[in-house]
Model the fold of this input.
Amino acid sequence: MAGIPKYAAGVPRHELVKILCRGGSCPKGQSTYARLALREGGPIPGDSGRYAGYVAHCLRCGYRATDTYNWQGP
Done:
C-alpha cells in the first residue's frame, strides 16, 4: 500500500487509523498507525462519531487507545 509504513502494511486499510500513541516505546507527540477492533460491550455512553464502539491497538508498541476523538483514517 502506498504511503503506509512497513509495520502497518499487512493490515487491511479499512482496519487502520492514525492515533497519537501514549505507549512507552512510541515517540511522544508523533502519530502512529493502529488497528481497529470492536470494543467489548459496545460503545461507552457519550461516545459518538465514526469510531464509537472501537478501540485501537498501536502496531508499534501494543498500546490500547480508547480516546476516539483524535483518530484519523489513513
